[in-house]
Each structure stands twice: as structure tokens, then as C-alpha cells.
Design brief:
30% strand; six-stranded mixed sheet; alpha/beta; 245 residues; Rossmann fold; four-stranded mixed sheet; 14 strands; 30% helix; single chain
Length: 245
């Protein structure tokens, strides 16, 4: 078996330990004897939407995110829609999550997004939403917890009928008001949780790996369990920090 991962804009969208997420996926594949292929795609570059099983986009500074937004719309929008419709897994964190929507506000300017998900990100009065966060998630009929850290000035609102990734147990979530966090639509996942996300939540990494391998090989894949004592300890530490807040 082999998993093909595409990292979008690794030079611009990588300020929240995003390389840690990529490394974690690679190591969990290697520990199971699963082949792993990592490629990157930057500003002005196109990619083959059928050549990747998992597409990752992290967070960036405002200036970099604005440049990436323009490039996504001009160069990669059609490829992203094709990859999504073909069943490729898409994981977008923080700024990358905001870019999945129709638009987001930056210093009074409305920046066009991909429109892959039914959401808008706006600026409102009030402080940034910062701190440890924990959410309750149900992706496969089993209720689980994700824990991490959030730091965003934008407030994200989902369209009616658009499913969140989870519901806030502690922290702020999408906007600090409606108790929702992230977005989930088939194999598309967006979230504000970082720090990084996956090493603190190994079960989610395995869920994404399983979906990506299913995309590549055309059928369900059963992953060999791994001894996750350190990963479990990292999750519990992040969860305690969220609940203490």
C-alpha cells in the first residue's frame, strides 16, 4: 500500500507546527510498512488532482494568506474541486480552513476563498479567540475528543445545513458563540485546532490515513494498531489544558 500526500504552500502556510502534522502521518505510515510519498505545490504551480490521496493546507501570516488566497482562486480552484469530488481527503487547519469558504475578511477587505465549504469568516469586535480547546467529534458512529490550541481573530460561520467537525467542550471554536468548531463534508475537514493537531490526536491521523488509502486502493483498509502510549499522553495533556481553561 502507498499513501500520496500533497502539501499546499508549505513555505507560506506553516506557522502552527504544520510540518509536525505531515511528519506524524509519514511516521504512522512507515511504522505500518505503508509506502509514503510527499509532494508540495506552491504559488503559481498546478497539481494533478488525481495524483494525491490526501491534501494538506496549514495556517499562515495575514500577508501570506492573502497571496495564497489569490493563487488558490486563479490557479488551483478547479483542481481542488476535482480532487474533492474524486474522494481525495482534504485537511485544512486555521488559515487554510478559512480559505475553504467563500470569503474571509482581512483588515476590512473581503478576500475571495475557494468555496469548497459553505462558510464565511468575518471580523467582529472583541479579542482574538486564543487558548486550549477541546471538541466532541463523531465521524464513524463513535464519539471521540479532539484537543489542541486555537488562535484566530476571524469568526467563522457555517451555512445552515453545513456540518461542523465537532461541538465545543471547552474553548471558543468557530466564533465563540454557537458552540461549533470546524467543518466536515465527506472527506473534507477544516479546523482551527493546531499546535499541531495530529500528534495530539492520533486517532484522527489514523482516520485520515484510512480514508486516503481507501481513495488510492478503492476499498476499505484496516490499519494495524500501534502502541500509542506517548500519543495518548500528549492527548491527555492537551485535554487537561483545555478543561483547566
Amino acid at each position: 500500500m502507498r499513501l500520496r500526500l500533497l502539501s499546499l504552500y508549505p513555505d507560506q502556510m506553516n506557522i502552527y507546527a504544520d510540518r509536525g502534522n505531515l511528519t506524524f502521518i509519514r511516521k504512522r505510515c512507515e511504522w505500518r510498512g505503508i509506502g509514503f510519498e510527499l509532494t508540495s505545490c506552491g504559488l503559481g504551480e498546478e497539481f494533478d488532482p488525481g495524483g494525491h490521496d490526501l491534501i494538506y493546507m496549514g495556517g499562515g501570516q495575514d500577508r501570506d494568506q492573502k497571496a495564497v488566497a489569490g493563487d488558490l482562486v486563479r490557479v488551483k480552484r478547479g483542481q481542488m474541486f476535482t480532487a474533492r469530488d474524486d474522494g481525495a481527503v482534504i485537511l485544512a487547519v486555521c488559515g487554510g480552513y478559512q480559505l475553504l469558504g467563500r470569503s474571509y475578511q482581512l483588515e476590512g477587505e473581503r478576500i475571495e476563498g475557494l468555496g469548497l465549504a459553505g462558510l464565511e469568516t468575518v471580523r467582529e469586535s472583541g479579542p482574538r479567540l486564543i487558548g486550549p480547546v477541546a471538541i466532541t467529534v463523531d465521524l464513524d458512529g463513535t464519539e471521540r475528543t479532539l484537543a489542541g490550541f486555537e488562535n484566530h481573530g476571524g469568526r467563522t460561520y457555517l451555512d445552515t445545513g453545513c456540518e461542523p467537525l465537532g461541538r465545543v467542550r471547552s474553548g471558543h471554536g468557530n466564533n465563540g458563540r454557537d458552540g461549533l468548531e470546524g467543518v466536515h463534508d465527506r472527506n473534507l475537514f477544516g479546523t482551527y485546532l493546531h499546535g499541531p493537531l495530529l500528534p495530539k490526536n492520533a486517532w484522527l491521523a489514523d482516520h485520515l490515513i484510512g480514508l486516503a488509502l481507501e481513495h488510492h486502493h478503492g476499498g476499505p483498509v484496516e490499519l494495524e494498531p500501534l502502541p500509542d502510549e506517548l500519543e495518548s499522553a500528549a492527548h491527555q495533556s492537551a485535554l487537561r489544558a483545555a478543561e483547566a481553561g
